[in-house]
Design a protein that fits this description.
It is a single chain. By secondary structure, this protein is of the alpha/beta class. The protein folds into two domains: 3-75, Aspartate Aminotransferase, domain 1, CATH 3.90.1150; 129-210, no CATH class. It is built from six helices and six strands. The strands form two sheets. It has a three-stranded antiparallel beta sheet, with no helix packed on it. Strands 5-4-6 form a three-stranded parallel beta sheet.
Length: 221
């Protein structure tokens, strides 16, 4: 794909939102896809380049969601497309726990090199934030032998049973899905201008302090 083939980086409305094709497709979605899977936008994407999404009606809209932070380098970034094409030409999937592959090792090496701290590091790649949080708590509990987890009010951590327990918002995430994991304690988000407390005041049996970098579903503070 040449630069001339990529979408113009500007908004363009060819129809009302949603257009007729998206409206028809969303009706098919309603009939085929579980109602528990919500959708923020009532349009169906056709293609996306850089910061612009084009729907099947030809409307171009600004991609403020970025796949919830997944495509921060831009949609269909040429280097990413090339790397994916080369990877799937060699093999599609093995599951690293069955047959390892170099891409996984190289990503972990890069994470270990780029993340802060001058000490020996190892990484594990997870398929979602909720799975990463669950594993972080398992590691912390196993290492510290402490059961309690401290989370901040208003934070969102995921929708598995444990991460729902960590998540502050009841609706729409938690209502009717309990009982949840125990030993979860909440505290207000520190506001250093008004409060100069420190971790030394935290109970000794608290194993971890879980701070969500995404205070709400999208948008970091």
């Amino acid at each position: 794909m040449t630069s001339q083939d990529r979408l113009p980086q500007s908004r363009h409305l060819a129809t009302d939102i949603p257009g007729p094709l998206s409206t028809a497709a969303m009706q098919r979605r309603k009939e085929a896809v579980s109602g528990g899977l919500g959708t923020a936008m009532p349009v169906i994407v056709s293609r996306a380049h850089d910061a612009i999404i084009e729907d099947i009606d030809g409307n171009r809209i600004i991609d403020l969601g970025s796949g919830i932070g997944v495509v921060s380098v831009g949609n269909s970034a040429p280097r990413v497309v090339k790397a994916v094409q080369e990877a799937v030409a060699n093999f599609t999937h093995t599951n690293f726990t069955t047959v390892p592959y170099m891409g996984y090792i190289e990503v972990c090496e890069a994470l270990n090199r780029l993340t802060p701290g001058k000490f020996k590091k190892k990484s594990i790649l997870q398929n979602s934030g909720a799975e990463a949080v669950e594993n972080a708590i398992k590691i912390a509990r196993h290492y510290t032998k402490r059961p309690a987890v401290v989370v901040f009010e208003h934070a969102y951590h995921g929708r598995t049973n444990l991460t729902m327990a960590l998540t502050a918002k009841n609706l729409p995430y938690k209502d009717g899905f309990g009982p949840f994991a125990s030993e979860i304690y909440r505290m207000p988000m520190p506001y250093s201008y008004r409060y100069d407390g420190n971790l030394a005041t935290i109970a000794e049996d608290s194993l971890a302090h879980v701070i969500s970098k995404i205070e709400k579903e999208i948008g970091a503070h």
